[in-house]
Amino acid sequence: MKSLLRLLPYLKKYKRTLLWGLLTVVMSNVFTVFQPQIVGNAIDKLKIGIETKNIDGAGILFYAIALVALNLIAGIFTYLTRQTIIVVSRHIEFDLRNDFLKHIQKLSLSYYQNTPTGDLMAHATNDIGSVRNVVGPGIMYPSDTLMTLSMVLVMMFLTNWEITLYALIPMPLVSYAVYKLGKQIHKKFEERQEQFSVLTTRAQENLSGIRIVKAYVREAYEIDRFKKLSWEYLKKNLVLAKIQSILWPLMFLLVGSSLVIIVYVGGLKVIHNEISIGTLTAFFGYLTLLIWPMIAFGWVTNLLQQGAASMGRLMKIMDTEPDIRDTDETNISIKDIQGKIEFRNVSFTHKNTQSPTLKNINLEIPQGTTIAIVGYTGSGKSTIINLIPRLYDVTDGELLIDGINIKKIPLEILRANIGYVQQETFLFSDTLKENISYGVLKEKTIVKEKWNNGVLDDIVKAAEVSQIAKDVKEFPKEYETMLGERGITLSGGQKQRTSIARAVMRNPKILILDDALSAVDTYTEEEILKRLRNVMKNRTSIIISHRISTVKDADMIVVLNNGEIVERGNHEELVALGGIYADLYEKQLLEEELEQL
Questions:
Q1: Can you tell me the distance from the alpha carbon of 86 to that of 133, in angstroms, rounded to the nearest whole number?
Q2: I want to staple 370 with a disulfide (CB 3.0 to 4.6 A). Which of 265, 352, 431, 541 is the partner?
Q3: Per-residue pLDDT for 112 more than 70?
Q4: Would you state the pLDDT for residue 488?
Q5: Region 446-457: what's the mean pLDDT?
Q6: DSSP secondary structure of 177-227
Q7: CA 370 → CA 131, 348, 510, distances in Å?
Q8: What is the pLDDT of residue 224?
Q9: Which 3 state secondary structure label does DSSP give 356?
Q10: pTM summary value
Q11: Which CATH number fits domain 425-507: 3.40.50.170, 3.40.50.300, 2.40.128.50, 3.20.20.80?
């Protein structure tokens, strides 16, 4: 339950509204607690009238009107309670979900590589929903229960303390039952949520990889696998439901025990004329008012235990610090970069691996030059460029931008000046226009009117550079065309060209193309590279490609093998060297000749 203390900052934000809500709880109970006494008085008055054959109709009517009025006023305050506390719970849910997403956005790439997406989705939906129940019903019902319990007990003691003590005999059992069952509920709820995360992950992976599933005819396998996971989730739900089902009847049993005691003890006192029938009726009324608090006590225990388990799961993530972040060493006065890059004895080893991916990399990339990186598959090409935007941090050595250690440059400034087109093209389920303009900075237009103020022109220019503009003209809505998840309405080449336009749109100081032209034909590739050279004048470009035609015009070509730089120079120098680059070049020439046969 300690995890729920982490909600205090959120509660403080809405403390005035919550205080008003608690006040309405008090007022609602004030106008409720006198109702049994009014009913009791009315019955006594009616009994006397029947015995004396002189019924006071006006007096009975007064009690009836008073009862209706008290119910009406109590109902109004109950409505206000829900409009304050429950509304606050929705606001806190909104804040918590946004804070959760904000935090996971800051986490390092390595975290996402080790955490299933479905697990994070479960946290952002189910767990936050459980926490909301703690803040809403978890505050409203306990406060209502405590107020009702305290006020009713006071009225019961004032009416007849002896019967009240008898009625309270079963109450210690309530606390014991809630304590024992609450621990079990907490444990089983955590197990259920963990299984829900597994189930969500499987569903997410299945839908994301639906093409592979269909291509390999694995539908039946996936259905069976999901069915097994669903069955495990069902079993954990049933175990939790079994424990919860014990709590509710137990509350009814204990309250019923109090009712039996009052009937017996109170009945004897009525027979011996120690109390009136109206007083006994009032006691039944008070006990009726206690039934809901007792039931709510069990229900709220469920909510609190589930909410505490969910909050604990959320806090494990919220307390995770990103491996890559700004530190005290960060120079916040740096507002821009120029693009000179230098690797000094840089080595890098992935987590959970022993052998280094990169070894003693020494490389200087002057500002405004174009460098190409080639090598066999697995040589470390993608890894070396992932160090530049600090998707990974170097393990040994030093990486400098403009002569400054990259760790001293504010992360936002660094990444804002880099245009990165990755191997795996990702497009959002949005318009083509929004996808291309996604790379611009915070001042990116959100107001529709601003699209007509030069922004759309920039999008078109970026599309022309990437050679996607011609294709866009054939789309029914051109740049307003909606793309499906991952841009599935586009071909592979169109996706790559859209991604290049997105990188160009942000006008970067450093442009990185990681095999970003592999799905583009050679003619289109030449056109894109020619336009990129014009756009990237005096800016730094880094190109990774398996095609020699893509890299042959670079100012310098670096050849990687087993994480080390083994060759460097321009195209002619490397061909003459007769090493790995020359081997790759000869193989591609042979492939081209075979294609022409």
A1: 9
A2: 541
A3: yes
A4: 55
A5: 54
A6: HHHHHHHHHHHHHHHHHHHHHHHHHHHHHHHHTHHHHHHTT-HHHHHHHHH
A7: 52, 24, 10
A8: 86
A9: coil
A10: 0.72
A11: 3.40.50.300
